[in-house]
Backbone:
């Protein structure tokens, strides 16, 4: 799911001196540029649940404590075309709100703009995954007042959230149509504004 979403929507990379890293709801991807002709025997990579270490040809690339916990048994690294190391980490917490702000604690931090774009993408990925439907008796323009009455949202912010959220995504939701069962409803190219921090508000009670 994440891979297909990323293929359609592109990635939001955080550039570093050695390459870049980016993320989805499930995974963190690290791409490290190495000298052409690098052999796999020159690569030393240790992937722990909360720590990582990479050296090439005896030179340390990075080493430290990861921003959050990962599933080490599912972590992988590959050397591609003898010039690129690709590391894939599986997040232990795969919620949209778990948007890493840095690769390591205090190192390789995303700047505020990149962090904002990363959170937007994770929130849209969440929408792509969830089965967003509307009642067949309600047109999409009636979805906003439904969201505005969602009890999980504080009363003084419901209307504001509904205004901003629905203005950008309502055209992706058709009457009584299940987004997950209809590939034509694709959030990978969507824009989103409003309250998307932390993965966005919980509208689960509005689903069928």
Residues:
């Amino acid at each position: 799911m994440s891979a297909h979403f990323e293929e359609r929507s592109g990635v939001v990379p955080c550039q570093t001196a050695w390459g870049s890293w980016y993320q989805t709801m499930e995974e963190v991807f690290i791409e490290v540029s190495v000298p052409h002709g690098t052999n796999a025997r020159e690569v030393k990579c240790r992937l722990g649940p909360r720590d990582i270490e990479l050296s090439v040809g005896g030179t340390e690339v990075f080493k430290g404590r990861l921003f959050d916990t990962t599933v080490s048994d599912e972590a992988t690294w590959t050397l591609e075309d003898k010039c690129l190391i690709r590391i894939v980490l599986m997040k232990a917490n795969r919620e949209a709100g778990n948007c890493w702000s840095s690769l390591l604690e205090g190192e390789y931090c995303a700047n505020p703009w990149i962090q904002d774009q990363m959170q937007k993408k994770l929130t849209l990925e969440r929408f792509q995954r969830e089965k967003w439907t509307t009642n067949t008796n309600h047109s999409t323009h009636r979805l906003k007042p439904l969201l505005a009455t969602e009890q999980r949202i504080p009363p003084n912010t419901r209307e504001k959230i509904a205004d901003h959220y629905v203005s950008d995504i309502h055209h992706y939701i058709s009457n009584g149509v299940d987004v997950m069962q209809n590939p034509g409803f694709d959030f990978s190219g969507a824009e989103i504004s409003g309250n998307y921090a932390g993965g966005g508000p919980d509208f689960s009670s509005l689903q069928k």
About this structure: Strands lie at 14-15, 19-23, 27-33, 43-47, 51-56, 59-65, 76-80, 84-90, 102-104, 107-109. The two ends are 22 Å apart (CA to CA). The chain has four helices and ten strands.
